[in-house]
Every structure is written in C-alpha cells, then in structure tokens.
Amino acid sequence: MIVIWIIIALCGICSLILLSGRGSILIAGYNTMSKEEQEQYDEKKLCRITGAGMLVITVLTAVLETFGEKIPDWFWTLYAVLVIFIAVGIMILSNTICKIKENTGSKKKSYNKVVICIIAVSIVFSSLIMGIVFSKGKIEIAVSANSLDIQGYWWSNYEIKTEEIEEVELTENFQTGTRTNGFSGANLLQGEFKNKEQGKYTLYAYKDCKAYIILHTKKGDVVINEKTEKETRELYHEIEKILK
C-alpha cells in the first residue's frame, strides 16, 4: 500500500509540474521528437492539457485506494470509462489546439480530420465494448457426484469437492457485504467478499436474485445462486441430493 501511495504522490507532483506549463520532458512521444517536430507544438498548452488529464486520473486513483472495499461497483466502471476518455481526449487536443497553426494545405487538414474521426470511432467502440462486458454475462454451475464446478464470467472458475462441503443452506435473507477482490458487472457479483455473518467468503451470484445458497466448506463459505429464485431452489435440492 505504501508503494502505491508513493506512486500516486509522484504522479500528483508530475501533474502539478505539467500544469505549470513546464516538464515537457515527462510527455511520452513529445520528449523523443526532433527539435523541428517539437516546434510544431505549443509546449505550454501541451504540458497543461496533459497535466490536467493526469491529475484527474491521479485523484480518481487516490479515491479508489482510500476507500478500497467501500467503493461501489459503478465507480470502477466510471473510472475505466474516464481513463479512456481522458487518454483519447489528450490525443485529440494535442493534435489540434496544441499544434501551431500553419498554412500547410488541404492534405494536412484532411489528415487531421481522419485522425479525429478514428479517435471518435475508437471512443464509441470502447464504450460499447465496456457496456457489453459489464451488462452481460452468466455464471454456469455444474453439479456432479464428486464436485460442484462454477464457471465465472471474466473471473476465475471455482471447484468444490463434495467431500469438502460440510453444510448447505438456502436463504432469502442475505447481505453480500463489500467486495475485496473480484469482478462485478451490472448483473453479476463474483470474487472475494466480506460481511458480518460469514466474514471473508467467496461469492458467485446474480444481483437480481434474492435467494442464495450458502455452502459451508472446509476452506470457508461459498455463496452462489441462479438467475431466479426458482432456479436457485432447484439447484439447492440438486446439491442436497448428492450430499446424502
């Protein structure tokens, strides 16, 4: 954690230096250009725009590190989207308002239009992909005589040997608590969680389903469910059968 805060502090200092209009040596790409190429840019504008974007990302990262487990799932989505938009925004601005205007003809203008169009399409495409990733997906649970196999969505699979299950219970009064590690989308909760009843436990569940199956195992509690309460009850009875 100390190392992360040191990195955040260094990023904050670099952001402030750039915001002052200095520190162009910190800007990747610009610092490797020839002197003639660098003269095509307004150095102070480039530094300030890069510094502003970097400062926003640094502040958001500090918020994530400060609140940790208490951060809601939507904030992680917002963070990822903002990082993409800021990065692309810096690219657009550095090739438009940061460039010293010259009468270079229609070819240069056409090139800039193409670059802007490509970046705009990239933003839309990235947002669409992220929307699909966070809003779709399913958890697949396969029950056999020897094990219970859970296939996560954009998260690691989990296997429980039937001999490791000490007790199983079905409940509709369950508080998931906070996530300490894992991946959650618009309709899924997956990973390591912590609440008052179980303490640290593993969760693979659909948010909209209020029924949960709690598996008390030798390695700790594992909580699962299906898309609906009916399907969850059916899964519970199926697990009960293999444990008898």
From TrEMBL:
Q: Which InterPro entries match?
A: Bacterial_PH-related (IPR027783), UCP037672 (IPR017259)
Q: Which keywords fit this entry according to its UniProt record?
A: Membrane, Transmembrane, Transmembrane helix
Q: Where are the transmembrane segments?
A: 6-28, 49-68, 74-93, 114-134
Q: Does the keyword Iron apply?
A: no
Coiled-coil stretches noted in the UniProt entry, renumbered to this chain = none
* Domain annotation Bacterial Pleckstrin homology: ranges: 141-224
User: Is Cell wall biogenesis/degradation one of the keywords?
Assistant: no
What this protein is called in its record is Bacterial Pleckstrin homology domain-containing protein
